[in-house]
Amino acid sequence: MKPIKRRKFGNTGLEVTEVSLGAMNIRLLDSEEEAKKVVHASLDAGINLIDTARVYVHEKEDGRLFESEVLVKEALCEHEKVDEPIIVVTKGHGYNPKAFDEDLNLSREKLGITQLGGLKIGEQDIKLVYFFHGLTRERFDEMKQTGVMDHALKLRDEGYFHYLGFSSHNGHEEVICEAIDTDNFQVTELPYNVFAAGFSRELETYGNIFKRAYDKGMAIINMKAFGGSSMIKNSVIFKDYYEITPTDRLRFCLSNEYIATVDAGCKYIEELETDIAASHMERIPEDECLELEKNAKRVTGILNKECRECTHCLEKFECPEGLNFPDILALHTRYELLKEFGGDIEELVGAYSLFEKDGGDCIACENCLSWCEYQLNIPELLEDTHAILGR
Predict the structure, then answer these.
(1) In 161-194, which positions are buried (b, 16+ CB within 10 angstroms) versus exposed (e)?
(2) Which residues contact 287 (CB under 8 A, 6 or more apart)?
(3) CA–CA distance, 180 with 188 (Å, rounded to integer)
(4) Using CA atoms, how far apart are residues 175 and 340, in angstroms rounded to an integer?
(5) What is the mean pLDDT of residues 292-314?
(6) Terminus-to-terminus CA distance in the chain, angstroms?
(7) H or E element that contains 54
């Protein structure tokens, strides 16, 4: 197997494979053996960073808990010893010293780490990166007020873990920049993908946040490279109008020079193999990246205002007039995509005509509104659909 390319892991002195294993979803598999096989496959492929977290826990119907940290530990203990330290990232929600200690100690226990310094999981040498998970203004202010950052750095120096980091999300740019500028962190994990590339663009107030971290010597782990689970599902909606393949999405991220590794969240070995194959391809030139972004924005601009076909509303609500409004609104979404990217709507008109009750039968009672997670005005969309497709 062709070796996975490597990059500097910030100023840690380590090198990391460009594709790493995001171990969040392995807890969703049917058996522990299936989950561990994904970890084994990543190690066999040469991947040397595994990303997990204390909150990555899933309770099965029979009451069993599948904990990502435990699954990672068991796989590492079973695996033949590799000839380099494995970088293990885990995360907690301790924003004051007491809570930090509780979360850190529990993660070390679940990962099977008992020693200080020279950390191991089983016989595997590891480099443990510990994160403040999901930084927000409220959480960062608590961290500053309680002195937990100095406390965390002291524990790092005592050998409880090797590197301190944080993760955050879009909408928290101010806090992210403040955290970067403290010089307390060696690693950060931030979302970046073709649908949301803002952290590596010149923002009016904050500049290029990825460059800011990179220039500080921080290692940047790229999460949500595929746009997050909702966008992966939404891809089924728009792929017939403008397809951005998973391979394109990964190559887009790998083309960013500031990123150390892409945390490719995998549930199946086949996904892992696809990601590794994509990493061997040529990088996408900057002008092509910008074109991909442009078209991705056209897609998201439409989907942000349309039904995502999640059908969560139907779990607790039934239209009193008997309208199958998610399926009707699915046609409205496709009409908007056709309008943007070009195409004939006659097939949509035909599909709409098959509904026994259509948008014209909506009485605008608005009982459905509170059940839409995306706060869409369902009666207005039904009316618009009928005006466009009802002939």
Answers:
(1) bbbbbbbbbeebbebbbebbeeebbbbbbbbbbb
(2) none
(3) 9
(4) 36
(5) 84
(6) 58
(7) none
Confidence (pTM): 0.85
DSSP of 114-144: --SSS-EETTEEEEEEEEE-S--HHHHHHHH
d(C-alpha 209, C-alpha 204), whole Å: 11
Dist. CA 36–CA 42, nearest whole Å: 10
Angstrom distance (rounded) from CA 6 to CA 371: 46
Across 224-333, where does the E strand assignment appear?
A: 261-265
Percent of the chain with pLDDT over 70: 97
Amino acid at 200: S
Residues 136-153: tens digit of each pLDDT: 999 999 999 999 999 999
pLDDT value at residue 19? 97
For residue 331, give the nearest of 302, 353, 359, 351 by alpha carbon: 351
β 15-17/6-8 pair status: antiparallel
SS3 content of the chain, % helix, strand, coil (to 5): 45, 15, 40
Q: Would you state the structure tokens that stand for residue 87, as one six-digit string?
A: 């970088």
φ/ψ of 115, rounded to 5, equals -95, 170
Structure tokens at 121: 């999981």
- pLDDT given at position 243: 80
In whole angstroms, give the CA distance from residue 194 to residue 274. 18
Taking phi over 0 as left and psi of -120 to 50 as alpha, with beta for the rest, 10 belongs to left
The alpha-helical segments, DSSP class H, found in the chain are 32-44, 68-78, 97-111, 137-146, 148-158, 173-181, 209-215, 228-238, 246-254, 269-279, 286-303, 325-341, 346-353, 378-389
Q: Which residues contact 339 (CB under 8 A, 6 or more apart)?
A: none
**From CA 190, how far away is CA 18, in angstroms rounded?**
15
